[in-house]
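Design request, tokens follow.
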């Protein structure tokens, strides 16, 4: 990680290196434009540590319950994130966290989530969620339905041929969660790895759904025709 205070020509060169994937430099971001990530693979390494088997250091330092919360619910505590970052970088952990958030690999929770209680009575309060590690939504037969389909609903579909839509869908979940903080801050979203319900206004919910087998994303808006 390098801090910048350089001229426009050098910044242009950094932008070219960024486009080629050699570094990460975001000149259009006021906060991150002051930093250059010289090893972009660090972000990948951190996510690999989050999604793979529990490392020994987690068990040794008493973060087993934090780890279980992450892998069962997709919720990430600050203490667990700190220890994972400590294994990957020695400094600028805050900046690395911002990069992870910028690329929607993790997303800060924008609403008050209840405390989780572990088996030993320890209270855990998540600070982020990891979109790719959220649980899959159960069917309507197994739990409360996320969305009640109506004949008046408006549906839109985006089809994918060249690549799988799952990574993009996880980014969309993160972006929708961030946007709701601005558009409708008092709403309570419902998010799963394959579907999410959000609100554009108190009377305008919408659903984003990943239909993996069909390689498409479905967006459904609740619609009621206005009476004349």
């Amino acid at each position: 990680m390098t801090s910048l205070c350089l001229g426009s020509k050098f910044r242009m060169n950094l932008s070219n290196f960024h486009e080629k994937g050699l570094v990460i430099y975001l000149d259009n971001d006021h906060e991150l434009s002051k930093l250059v990530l010289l090893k972009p693979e660090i972000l990948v390494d951190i996510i690999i540590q989050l999604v793979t088997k529990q490392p020994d250091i987690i068990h040794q330092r008493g973060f087993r319950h934090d780890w279980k919360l992450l892998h069962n619910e997709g919720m990430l505590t600050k203490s667990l994130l700190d220890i994972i970052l400590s294994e990957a970088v020695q400094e600028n952990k805050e900046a690395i966290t911002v990069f992870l958030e910028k690329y929607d690999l993790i997303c800060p929770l924008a609403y008050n989530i209840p405390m989780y209680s572990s088996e030993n009575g320890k209270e855990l309060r998540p600070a982020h969620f990891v979109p790719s590690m959220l649980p899959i939504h159960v069917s309507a037969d197994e739990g409360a339905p996320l969305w009640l389909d109506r004949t008046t609903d408006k549906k839109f579909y985006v089809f994918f041929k060249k690549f799988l839509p799952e990574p993009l869908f996880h980014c969309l979940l993160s972006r929708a969660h961030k946007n709701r903080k601005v558009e409708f801050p008092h709403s309570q979203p419902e998010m799963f790895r394959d579907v999410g319900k959000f609100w554009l206004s108190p009377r305008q919910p919408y659903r984003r759904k990943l239909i993996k087998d069909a390689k498409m994303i479905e967006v459904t808006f609740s619609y009621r025709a206005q009476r004349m």
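Comment from the thread starter after seeing the answer: thanks! The first strand starts at residue 2 and ends at 3.
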